[in-house]
Specification:
Radius of gyration: 18 Å
Helix content: 25-40%
Number of helices: 5
Largest sheet: 8 strands, mixed
Pathway: Cofactor biosynthesis; coenzyme A biosynthesis; CoA from (R)-pantothenate: step 2/5; Cofactor biosynthesis; coenzyme A biosynthesis; CoA from (R)-pantothenate: step 3/5
Family: In the C-terminal section; belongs to the PPC synthetase family.
CATH superfamily: CoaB-like
GO molecular function: FMN binding; metal ion binding; phosphopantothenate--cysteine ligase activity; phosphopantothenoylcysteine decarboxylase activity
Keywords: Decarboxylase, Flavoprotein, FMN, Ligase, Lyase, Magnesium, Metal-binding, Multifunctional enzyme
Number of domains: 1
Bound molecules: cytidine-5'-monophosphate
Structural class: alpha/beta
EC number: 4.1.1.36, 6.3.2.5
Shape: globular
CATH architecture: 3-Layer(aba) Sandwich
């Protein structure tokens, strides 16, 4: 239907940072605001899709008309994403922490004679790669993001292949671009055989244009 190009489609979106605990009161995280992911969830809902948004802790309101699942750690996010399948389209916009602390202390770590603690890390699951490589439950369209500070398009191409997704939305987050936490974004759409650079625009604008593109891709597939 005109105006509702995703009617009848199920869309899954991840957004925001994850929080990886150190002890009961401390964590490791990053500066992701969730603005781009939340905007995509909203735009997909406005395009008529049934949308589930799995988000880490952000200061944004839940988008209207979207089923929102709040999580903290990467492992919780993976479990929530798997529980939200099947989906026709999955967009992974979350800034998932690459590592978590290997053994989370049961009690608050104390200052003391032993000096500062040393933390050992283990790798978190790659949620995007896990879902893109799911046999039967793989969504028809799997979209990843790439936040790069250099060689943006080359790095995105490599990521596309490594993660097994259909499209990478690459953005330049080099210091001075104002992308991280800001309201505007310059993105490059990278597929196995094309690269397109979009004019700098609001994250809402990127979200609407991306949703339009995804609707075209899924209609053609
Ligand atoms: O490898 P890198 O973190 O640059 O990849 C970014 C893309 O992969 C984003 O789409 C992000 O949401 C996703 N990702 C993920 N799980 C991870 C790491 C990244 O889903 N553990």
């Amino acid at each position: 239907a005109v105006g509702h190009p995703l009617k009848g489609k199920r869309v899954l979106v991840t957004s925001g940072p994850t929080r990886e605990p150190i002890d009961p009161v401390r964590y490791i995280s990053n500066h992701s605001s969730g603005k781009q992911g939340h905007a995509i969830a909203k735009a997909a809902a406005e395009a008529g899709a049934e949308v589930t948004l799995v988000t880490g802790p952000v200061s944004l309101a839940d988008p209207v008309g979207v089923t929102v699942v709040h999580v903290e750690s990467a492992r919780d996010m993976l479990a929530a994403v798997e529980a939200a399948l099947p989906a026709d389209i999955a967009v992974f916009a979350a800034a998932v922490a690459d590592w978590r602390v290997a053994s989370v202390a049961d009690n608050k770590l104390k200052k003391g004679a032993g000096g500062p603690p040393s933390l050992a890390f283990v790798e978190n699951p790659d949620i995007l790669a896990t879902i893109a490589k799911h046999g039967s439950k793989r969504p028809q369209l799997v979209v990843g993001f790439a936040a790069e500070t250099e060689a943006v398009v080359d790095n995105a191409r490599a990521k596309l292949a490594r993660k097994g997704c259909d499209l990478i939305v690459a953005n330049d987050v080099a210091p001075g671009t104002g992308t991280f936490g800001g309201d505007a974004n310059t993105v490059h759409l990278v597929t196995p055989d094309s690269v397109e650079t979009w004019d700098r625009q609001s994250k809402d604008g990127v979200a609407r244009a991306l949703v339009t593109r995804l609707a075209e891709m899924i209609a053609k597939a």
